[in-house]
What we know:
Elements: H1 9-12, E1 24-31, H2 34-44, E2 53-60, E3 63-64, E4 70-71, E5 78-85, H3 97-111, E6 117-119, E7 123-127, E8 140-151, E9 154-162, H4 187-207, H5 209-219, E10 226-230, E11 237-244, E12 250-253, E13 259-262, E14 266-269
Helix pairs in contact: 3-4, 3-5, 4-5
Amino acid sequence: xxxxxxxxxxxxxxxxxxxxxxxxxxxxxxxxxxxxxxxxxxxxxxxxxxxxxxxxxxxxxxxxxxxxxxxxxxxxxxxxxxxxxxxxxxxxxxxxxxxxxxxxxxxxxxxxxxxxxxxxxxxxxxxxxxxxxxxxxxxxxxxxxxxxxxxxxxxxxxxxxxxxxxxxxxxxxxxxxxxxxxxxxxxxxxxxxxxxxxxxxxxxxxxxxxxxxxxxxxxxxxxxxxxxxxxxxxxxxxxxxxxxxxxxxxxxxxxxxxxxxxxxxxxxxxxxx
Length: 273
């Protein structure tokens, strides 16, 4: 199948239960933001969107990232989907949602044949040997971006995967696609693997929160590296990423031994592996 073939309801239908991992899927040709559309639909009729429902756009024209960033990709090259998750976690424990989805995305990319890791808090990266060193990223290249929002106690988890972009179609120098990394795969296959891994990660999250936190820690490439985190303060938090807090915060230990817990922020790695 053509990797850039349009995503249609017929192609996604086999991924819906009982044959597939999704509870249901709405597939549209175009959407400014799948997260915005799904959040609005969820507020209007929450009972219509059970756990592991998905809203998929063949082409997303104004995707949202952290800090209000807007991005767009060419038609037919990226998987843009948002999922409704209804974990047992509630309140502050829902801060783990982007990390749990990140773990699932890492496992999905690895299952597709590319060695990936999690860059805290919501990017999936690949370390590309021989690539140019980019400030804040080193030789890491971003393949997946994640944006989670809480809507009436449920999680809306938006995931954007660079699938078929050529090098000239990537939005920023620190981006890569599965195709640019040598992997030819369809967006339907990526959605299938991703949805399966999200379902498995959510099952583990429900059954054993400590185990899911250990799994996240194991795939988090940020840990152990010198970082500068822009967390909204007058100056970045600078030190070594030494762990994850109980609430999913990044623990940064300064040169003087002070530990700062960062709940959200843009991480610049000062020496990528």
